[in-house]
Amino acid sequence: MTETRTPGFCALCKSRCGAILVTRDGRLVGQEPNPAHPTGKALCVKGKAAPEIVYSPERQLYPLRRTRPKGDPDPGWQRISWDEALDETAAALARIREAHGPEAVVFGLTTPSGTPIADDLRWIERFINAFGSPNTAYGTEICNWHKDHAHAFTFGRGIASPDFEKTDCVVLWGHNPSAAWLDHATAVSAARARGARLVVVDPRRAGFAARADEWLRVRPGADGMLALAIAGEMIANGRYDADFMRDWSNGPLLVRADTNQLLRAGDLAVPPPGAGWGDLVAIGAADGAAIGYAPARGTYAGGAVPLLDAAATLMGTDGAPLACRSAFALYRDLCADYPPERVEREAWVPAEQVRRTARLIFEARPVSYYAWSGLGQHTNATQTDRALALLMALTGSFDAPGGNVEFTRAKGADVSGAAFMSEAQRGKCIELARSPLGPGRNGWVGSDALYDAIIDGRPYPIRAMVGFGRNFIVTHADGARGAKALAGLDFHVQTDVVMSPTATFADIFLPVNTPWEREGLRVGFEGSQRAENLIQLRPAVIDSRGEARSDGRIVFDLAQRLGLGDRFWNGDMDAGLAAVLEPSGVSLETLRSRPEGVSFDGAPRYFRYRDEGFRTPTGRIEVFSSALRDIGQDPLPRFVEPALSPASPLASAFPLVLTSAKVVHYCHGQYRHIPSLRRRMPDPEVSLNPDTAAARGIGAGDWVEIRTANGRVRMRARLDAGLDPRVVSAQYGWWQGSAELGLPAYDPLAEGGANYNSLISDRAADPVSGSTGLRSSLCEIVAVAARPRGEGGQDWGP
Ligand SMILES: Nc1nc2c(c(=O)[nH]1)N[C@H]1C(S)=C(S)[C@@H](COP(=O)(O)OP(=O)(O)OC[C@H]3O[C@@H](n4cnc5c(=O)[nH]c(N)nc54)[C@H](O)[C@@H]3O)O[C@H]1N2
Ligand SMILES: Nc1nc2c(c(=O)[nH]1)N[C@H]1C(S)=C(S)[C@@H](COP(=O)(O)OP(=O)(O)OC[C@H]3O[C@@H](n4cnc5c(=O)[nH]c(N)nc54)[C@H](O)[C@@H]3O)O[C@H]1N2
Ligand code: SF4
Ligand SMILES: [Mo]
């Protein structure tokens, strides 16, 4: 018996925990924590289930071709060779590209935060760019877009990294690292042990909520109001960094009352001294006179100091008075619309707790924070993100040690090939019709927009899909509409490890291997500077099972067949990897001989803005966002209720607010087939307050039906006294059975099944991002006798 122990990392989720990969006689037998690795202190239950994931009988190991019509419950799968599969795929893609342009092909991409696709993302992106499609359905609108991209409306960059090692106050807002990012959880625990304060904003008493100084049990989707209220308390009591806001935000700039636009020097009869026509205007602290601000230079004329909170009436070019107030004054007033008592009534957080939190956040600074799905899956998510960003700006912790900072990542080349696609082609992204500033800027499309394009041909027909894992039917709102769209495609190829419900609609299925069967190059791990300094090439520690291959191999081979080989090093993946590594100065050979990786000595870039300003239109943190105003959105983060809320007419029939969350055992729709995981979490669960249950005659463990205006699903009741009696939280992602345990599969399209997302409509979406109300729906819960439809997997599924 030969045992090998190879340093690597678990690639299954965002945490990418450093691990020792253990094999025996060519078989993977386990993963163990690797404390020497910057993210290697612990592994979760999924990471420990690695051998089961690899050797599961549910895996698909051979390319398949459909032989029966779409929509037929039996696709009539026929095993074919890789050459046949790739030839047919390339021919279909070439045909559609020829007839309708590459934009008629959408790419579906699963998430690198919850699958190991991160190993090969760079190659897939390169392929999309080389092929020329401006449409990628990435799910970013319901995942990371708000924290990573909407945040830039305020800061000119994403949320970046909480500096947990130096912080004195951690804020987790709609982020539960205990289930979703193990390495973050380890870092928060360490900060807590050092004495850092902790604030958790979550409708559930999950993860760190129980250990927090303040756990704010917000009504799902009311976070924007809560953030404004806390900010309002801070401002009203002078507990904010006024100098920072004056010097580094656009708060001092004047806004015209008549147009609700930033005042320009050219609007005035007498422009401020030294100001150019297009310069912006503030009121000087020295003498109360108007002063010019040049956004391009990021300076006030003559180095004058502005007033943050100002009101003035100046003379316009036509001699009429122009009433103006500073952006900060407008923001202060907006916050004042949400006094703690109102928030207690409407956002369900006690007024006293709002006050305490406002005090704590300021007094315990520097504050580092993280927000994720809890804020992103609402139809008001973009403005909520703005409200949170501005609240955090008030602490002055931005880019400060212990705040949210940019660690320096080890150097790797960006090989995504963005330059392959012309600007004109990018402009065809269907998502740009919703918003010129949303995910469409990066070529990412919301599933609602995608379904419109396939089903209704709006704005033009999408005819084919190349799906890399993404399981639309289960993970996006309105599974039935998703199915209708998928059934309407002329051609669909799907790569996956298992036969997902979305894959059952494909014409060609391509089997993907698991991370232990392929190499994975990681340039920089997230979470800390030490992690970002590491470059590691995880070796393939076992052979691929059956004929499964990596997505990388698949796109390299497809590129050859589509005449794009010259952009793919003529099929030589090693040459591609060498290109990635080129700027690092580390060779592929070195990394292959040192699986523990190579570390650099990068340091955090604190206070970068002091040299470079902010990458926003005004060069400052944007209290007032002209960019949003220009696309018809509110330049201030005014709170709007989610599309469905207790204020909606539907609330009389569906009185409970419905939200969802991740569980540690699974990633999204995956791993229900893995015995060690399914045993721990055998049934789909909905959590509700014991009083809410009792009022409906529901006991712990009973099967219940969750009903919304969009559908009905069944789950098992879990009683959770920590929940507000008006809120329920349910699991999503249920479809797969575990044959090994004899536990059922559930038809994701059946009324009375277990697919959470069939409860949600995709007809209302955030106007900028396209996010849907996965976490702010309305429902009623009733007791039922039976499990969800599709029991046993006999009447549904492959
Ligand atoms: N085990 C596991 N880990 C994962 C994943 C997985 O599927 N499983 N997926 C990965 C991916 S792709 C992602 S995006 C991340 C997500 O990581 P997180 O966003 O941290 O995880 P979630 O559980 O989705 O949501 C966080 C919290 O938001 C709360 N929440 C629900 N509604 C609201 C609300 O309206 N307001 C607020 N403030 N909070 C709310 C939930 O109760 C939950 O505790 O996790 C990654 N890691
Ligand atoms: N109600 C509700 N819905 C949600 C969420 C929620 O919190 N609540 N969360 C949302 C979020 S944050 C996200 S990111 C999405 C995720 O949505 P999806 O990306 O659709 O996530 P999964 O269900 O995990 O599907 C991933 C598929 O990829 C396959 N896979 C695994 N490894 C690989 C690989 O290396 N290559 C390929 N090609 N495939 C692979 C898996 O077998 C699985 O079938 O779900 C969203 N949906
Ligand atoms: S948290 Fe679990 S699944 Fe995610 S990388 Fe770590 S061990 Fe793997
Ligand atoms: Mo995600």
TrEMBL record:
Sorted alphabetically, the keyword list is: Iron, Iron-sulfur, Metal-binding
Q: What CDD domains does this protein map onto?
A: MopB_CT_Acetylene-hydratase
One Pfam entry for this protein is: Molybdop_Fe4S4
Q: Which GO terms describe its molecular function?
A: acetylene hydratase activity; iron-sulfur cluster binding; metal ion binding; molybdopterin cofactor binding; oxidoreductase activity
Residues forming the 4Fe-4S Mo/W bis-MGD-type domain are 3-58
Give the family this protein belongs to, as stated in its UniProt record.
Answer: Belongs to the prokaryotic molybdopterin-containing oxidoreductase family.
Name this protein carries in UniProt: 4Fe-4S Mo/W bis-MGD-type domain-containing protein
Q: Which organism is it from?
A: Chelatococcus reniformis
